[in-house]
Amino acid sequence: MDRGEEPPTMDLIVNPVLGMKLCFHHDLEAPPGTRLRIEYWVRPGGAREMVAHFHPRLRESFQVLSGEGNYRLGREILPVVAGQTVELPAGVPHIHPWNTGSQELHFIQTIHSPEPALEAMERVETIFSSLGAMAREGKVNRQGLPRNPLHAAVMIQGLHPESYLEGLPVGLQTVLVGALARLGKLLGYRLSYP
User: Fold this and answer.
1) 91-95 LR contacts (CB < 8 Å, sep 24+)
2) Residue pair 147/18 in contact by the 8 Å Cβ criterion
3) Distances (CA, A) of 36 to 61, 139, 168
4) Burial 18-55 (b: 16+ CB within 10 A, else e)
5) Rounded to two decimals, what is the model's pTM?
6) In this predicted structure, what is the pLDDT of residue 29?
7) What are phi and psi of 87, to 5 degrees?
8) Average pLDDT of each block of 10 consecutive residues along the chain (194 residues)?
9) For the chain, counts of helices (H) and of strands (E)
């Protein structure tokens, strides 16, 4: 997609709480489940509340097509501008780019897996789509997570073992989030929404 073009309308996920639109591009050039591309359009001031997280095995890159913003890598907040590609290594806590400019921030995220993780890539798409639908209905908090903690646990567990929240040891997170997610599933909460 060229800079300045409107986002595609097919399969576009709109998240008004985080102030962004996104769509998934399945990379047919890579072995299935090893690379996923997500294209974002973030309004000025948007996406700032995203949750800090890390990926034990996955690495990510962000190619900025237009606009400007910041991202967090470890404890550092760094600028990102059009024409720049940012690499986020596996295992380092981070927050994806948010818009700090007066124009829309447009970038492509590429998730790289060292081995096929097709099911995990599909869960990411389901979760982002569900969170967008929930945001449009006012069912998420400022960070874009479900307001109901049991539903949030189901969503967070859906990202394990590829992604974990920053701040809690992985073992504790696995046990705590796992227990809450099991209860949430018993009460009918799912990754897909509605």
Assistant:
1) 91/54, 91/55, 91/56, 92/54, 93/52, 93/53, 93/54, 93/166, 94/52, 94/53, 94/54, 94/60, 95/50, 95/51, 95/52, 95/53, 95/71
2) no
3) 11, 27, 27
4) bbbbbbbeebeeeeebbbbbbbbbbbeebbbbbeebbb
5) 0.90
6) 86
7) -105, 130
8) 51 94 88 93 91 95 98 97 97 96 97 94 95 96 95 96 95 97 98 92
9) 3, 11
Residue 5 pLDDT: 55
Match 């394990």 to its residue by tokens: 160
Q: What is the DSSP string of 87-156?
A: EE-TT--EEEEEE-SSS-EEEEEEEE-SS--HHHHHHHHHHHHHHHHHHHTT-B-TTSSBSSHHHHHHHH
Q: Please tell me the predicted confidence (pLDDT) of residue 55.
A: 97
The encoded tokens of residue 145 equal 């997570």
